[in-house]
Amino acid sequence: MTFRTRVAAAIAVVVAIAVLLACGAAYKAARDALVGSVDASLIEAYRTTYFPSEPGLDPRVEPAAGVGMLLVSPLGAERYISGAGKLTIDTLILKVAAEGTGPVQYRTISDLNGNAYRELIAPVPPDTVFIDYFHHGAEPLGVSAALVIFEPFQGVQARLRTLGEDLVLLAAFGVLLAALFGWLAARAALVPLASTTKEIEAVAATLDVSHRVEEGTDDELGRLRRAFNALLARVEQSQDSQRQLILDASHELRTPLTSLRANAQVLARLGELGHDDAAQLSEDMVAQVDELTVLVGDLTELTQGEHSVEDARSLDLADLVAECTEVAETHARTKQVTLEVDVTACQVHAKRNRLARAVGNLLDNAIKFSPIGGVVTVSCKDGEVVVEDQGPGIDEADLPKVFDRFYRSARSRGLPGSGLGLAIVSQVASEAGGTVEAGRSEATGGARLVLRLPVEA
Q1: Environment class of residue 94 by beta-carbon count within 10 Å: exposed (0-12), middle (13-18) or buried (19+)?
Q2: Which of 52-56, 111-115, 216-220 has the lowest mean pLDDT?
C-alpha cells in the first residue's frame, strides 16, 4: 500500500466516522422527538382525565382523541374507560395495580393482533373516585389499580423505519464521497512531497551533496526539507574533512617515507660504509619507522574515535588522571622531568579509554616541550584537567590552530610527533560534551592546556 493510499484511507475513515456519527445522532434525535411527542400526549391525557378527587371538577371532560384508557385491578379485571383494542395484561401491570403507588412508567408493546402501542402505566391508590365517561356515573374504587393509557405507535415506528433507511443510504453515499475526496485531498497534499522526493532521489543518484532543496514554507514539509539540507551539509562537511585528512596524512607520510627510501638506497652500498655510519643509518631508519608507527596509530585513533563502539559511563576523573600520570612518568624520567599531581575526586560521563588517551596526549605534549629537569604540574578538580609545563609556551599566532589536525608550530617541527595528539584531545572533549583550551601559564611561563568536562551530580 502506497503512502498516498494510506493518507486517502485515513481521510476517508475519519470522514466516514463523522458521517456515521452524524447520521446516528440525527436518528436518535428524531426518535427521541417522535417518542417524546407520543409520551407528551399520554401524560397530558393522564393529567386531564385522572380520577377527580376534588369537588367542582367537571366529570364530563373526555380523554384526548386517539388515546385509549384501561383500568386494571390487582386480580387482572379489566375495565375500559375509552379507546378500543385488546392489550395484554402482563406481570408489570399487575404489579403496579397491586402496589397502588410509585412512579409513572412508559413502554412500547404489541397487542394480540400485532398492533404496536405506546403505554403509560400509572398506579391508582384505593378509594379513588372513578368517573365512567361512557355512562356518566361515578363510583369509588375499593382497591388499588393500574391505569394504562395507550396510543397507537405503528405510525411512529413506520416513520422511524423510513428515516433509518434514508440515513443508511445517506451514510453510504457519504462514505463514498469521503473516499473520493480523501483520495483527491491526498493527491493534492502529496504533490510537494513528491517533488521533494524527486530531488532527494536525484541527490542519491548523483551523490552531489552540495545540492540543496528549496525549503519552502514553515510547515512539516518545510521542516523535512530543512532537516535534509542540514544532513547534506553535515555529509559535505564530513567529506571535506575526510579529503583534507587524506591530503594531510599523505603530506605527513611523504617525509618519513622519502627518508626511508633514501636510507634503503644507501643500504645497497653498506660495504662502503664505516661502522659508525652504518650504526647511524640503522638508528635513522628505526626513528623513521617509529615516526610512521606513531602517525599511523594517531590516524587510526582519530578516525575510529568518530565511530567508537565503546559505551560512555560514569567514572572518577581523578582516578583516571592519576593512572595516566603513572604511565607518563616512565617517559618523563628519560628527560628528568618531574610530574606534580593534585587531584580531587569528581564524576564525569565519558568513554574511559578515549578519555585516557586524551589525558595521556596532554601529558606527553607537556613532557615533550619541557626542558631537561623541568616540572609539569597536573591538577584535576570539578571536571577540569589542567596541565602546565615550563617549556617555551605557545605563540599567540599558534593558539587558534593548536587543535587542528596535523598542525605543528615552527618550533615543534623538529621534534617527534604527528601533529594529531591535540586534535584527538579536542575530539574526545567534544564527544563528552566538554571543551578544550590552550594558553600560556602565568605560573610557569610555559604552555597551559585545559580539558573541561561536565560534572555529574
Answers
A1: middle
A2: 52-56
Q: What does the pLDDT read at residue 258?
A: 74
Least Cα distance to 68 among 115, 32, 137, 102 occurs for: 115
> Under a CB-based contact definition with an 8 Å cutoff, are residues 420 and 405 in contact?
yes
Complete DSSP assignment for 194-254:
HHHHHHHHHHHHH--TT------SSSHHHHHHHHHHHHHHHHHHHHHHHHHHHHHHHHHHH
Across 362-391, b (16+ Cβ under 10 Å) vs e yields: bbbbbbbbbeeebbbbbbbeebbbbbbbbb
Report how far residue 93's alpha carbon sits from residue 100's, in angstroms, rounded to the nearest whole number: 11
Q: Percentage helix, strand, coil, to 5, in the chain?
A: 55, 20, 30
Instruction: Kindly give the residue spans of alpha helices, DSSP state H, lying in 50-134.
Output: 91-99
- pLDDT, tens digit (0-9, with 9 covering 90-100), for 245-298: 666 566 556 666 777 777 777 777 766 677 777 777 777 777 667 666 766 666
Predicted confidence (pLDDT) at residue 60 exceeds the cutoff of 50: no
User: Distance between CA 202 and CA 43 in Å, rounded?
Assistant: 77
pLDDT in tens, 270-285: 666 777 777 777 777 7
Question: Residue with C-alpha cell 395495580?
Answer: 97
Helix ranges (H only) for 268-403 are: 275-305, 317-333, 352-369
CB count within 10 Å of CB 225 equals 21
Q: Rounded distance, CA 375 to CA 388, Å?
A: 9
435-440 vs 447-452, strand pairing mode: antiparallel
User: Which cell is 280 given?
Assistant: 647511524
Q: How far is CA 5 from CA 9, 20, 190, 194, in A?
A: 6, 22, 11, 14
SS3 123: strand
Yes or no: say if 411 and 397 are a contact pair by the CB < 8 Å rule.
no
Indicate if the pLDDT at residue 163 is higher than 80.
Answer: yes
Helices 421-431 and 275-305 cross at an angle (nearest 10°) of: 20
Q: Give the residue from 313, 388, 389 showing the smallest Cα distance to 355.
A: 313
- Across 72-86, average pLDDT: 70
Q: What is the pLDDT of residue 181?
A: 78
The residue behind cell 560534572 is 455
Tell me which residue of 173, 163, 175 sits closest to 18, measured CA to CA: 175
